């Protein structure tokens, strides 16, 4: 297995190289640069030219790419044009928040979607199943930002159950368990908003997967053995029906670092998603490139983890 | 001891499909005696599988038994609760299926799947169950039985999987083994081996077998008696010899003629014209009439009763209406 992992990791290098070329081209093809927007007349044009020179923006794109690549490969992510801080510091600052939000979202998603999906599959086309289906489609068709705004409007502004922004109560100086509860209080609304979307699609998927497995011959065999219904469900149906979720888990793991750009922006959640949003608006190339590469890497790693887990869960799948 | 192990009387099993009722099994009577092999024969869609699943209490969710009795070992299975049926399934009545490739769970080891029934029914410990399973696997022809326990279904061939299924079914020493087309999916040499194995085990365990097949070719070799089903009903019932010497029902005759023969050089294989009507469009008269070469006027108007040719040979056909009529239950 170690050999398999090493082979897969090595295989990622050319993929990442191609992705980086594409990303760099995309980023460069946006007209203007980080200093175009500085219309402040007090800033001397000479100063801007100096800055451009300093950050290497006057070099040819190809030259710029190779300078970036050399630095990136050595773990030098550069300095943010905007706030003049090292990109690595910016990311380290934000990543914790994004992971916390993403993990909470994932947990909520699984806790809701798995029971609802199974419940639905066990009584297909009944009133309760149809109701769940209807809500799933509403959930699926609700745009994230709209859902987020609606959630803030109802639960923060009207009901005042949850704060509408931030990760902790500023200046409260909580410690220990109180600090943890305060963070949970802040994360819940954005997490649930994000989860609703994936709950909808997960529920649909789990429902059809369980329905499909219930029809399999081996499930009939299990009943023919005289196993009680509960045992058949647990041992024969669910194990097979939920296995494909491993693939989704891998994708979610990859998406974790992408953060939820819109949700983080609406909830002013200082995570990677908002960093991506801000850096894109500001054409802050070093930050943009690093964030995008981080997403690419995490998606590839997420896939690798999913493949490893799948091979562990399904004896028919071999490492090769 | 009562001579009859299983007696099905007037069994009707229906499905609800698209707001109409589908009478898949429509008044079936059949009896299986102790340590007897009964073959249930008929073309695809005649209701053979649904009859056997009715015995097991495993009809698909959209169906139900709407009439009749299934007396097994003196007790009516149609009146049993789900819990009681669980104790009978896989214990007193076992079943093997047509598709050995898909009848085993792909993600559990053979050992796990073979022992779970024993652990539930015979209250064996894991070790005892393993020992019993190894014994069974050797009996069905696995030389390296111990190793098979930790293997997965995809590592075995179709024939081997069917052997595993048979070991699973026989491990609890059932009184009745239902085999629903156990060899249809296998190639001819493997088919012969599996049938041979079933015969051996039947001798050894004194199990009754309900052998479902649409291949009359294997029936002569395996069965004591034959029940021929057509369109949800029994159309002929006889001892094997009696049936082969004197197939009474035109449908049985047609099935006989469609057996490929090695002795006679046949130019073309005979097949009965037309197809089995779907359960929601059974004809009013004799259900076989539209395909019957001997159909008479009355056949299209009235449904025939059952007549006796003597010696337990019964037939549902107007050609025999001069004979003694059997009253259906
Ligand atoms: N779940 C179901 N819903 C509706 N109709 C069904 C269902 N299952 C079976 N039937 C119908 O019942 C009839 C009898 O089916 P059955 O499976 O018993 O046939 P069979 O004799 O076993 O045929 P085969 O040789 O193909 O296995 C068929 O016409 C089939 O379409
Ligand atoms: S009753 Fe008539 S139609 Fe039916 S099988 Fe007999 S002869 Fe043919
Ligand atoms: Mg069948």
Structural features, described:
Chain A has 320 residues and is an all-alpha fold. Among the domains of chain A are: 32-67, no CATH class; 96-281, MetI-like (MetI-like fold, Orthogonal Bundle). In chain A, 74% of the residues lie in helices and 0% in strands. Chain A contains 13 helices and no strands. Chain A has helices spanning 2-29, 45-54, 61-73, 87-122, 127-141, 144-158, 176-214, 217-224, 229-242, 245-258, 261-266, 272-282, 285-313. In chain A, helix 1 (2-29) runs antiparallel to helix 13 and helix 4 (87-122) packs across helix 7. The model of chain A has no long low-confidence stretch (mean pLDDT 88). Chain B is α/β, with parallel strands linked by helices and 329 residues long. Chain B has 2 domains: 4-92 and 174-269, Rossmann fold, CATH 3.40.50; 104-173, no CATH class. Chain B has helices at residues 48-56, 82-88, 110-121, 126-139, 145-148, 158-170, 188-205, 216-222, 240-245, 250-257; strands at residues 4-17, 20-33, 37-41, 63-72, 75-76, 93-96, 176-180, 208-213, 225-230, 233-239, 306-308, 314-316, 324-326. In chain B, the strands form 2 sheets. A 9-stranded mixed sheet of chain B has the order 6-7-8-3-9-10-12-11-13, with helices on both faces. A 4-stranded antiparallel sheet of chain B has the order 2-1-4-5. In chain B, a hairpin with a 2-residue loop joins strand 1 and strand 2 (20-33). In chain B, helix 3 packs parallel to helix 6 (158-170). Chain B is globular and about 65 Å long. The model of chain B has no long low-confidence stretch (mean pLDDT 93). The interface between A and B is medium-sized, with 22 and 30 residues. Adenosine-5'-triphosphate is lined by residues 15, 17, 22, 24, 42, 44-50, 60, 62-63, 214, 278-279 of chain B. Magnesium ion is lined by residues 48-49, 180 of chain B. Chain B: Keywords: ATP-binding, Cell membrane, Membrane, Nucleotide-binding, Transport. Chain B: It is a peripheral membrane protein. Chain B: It comes from Thermoflavimicrobium daqui.
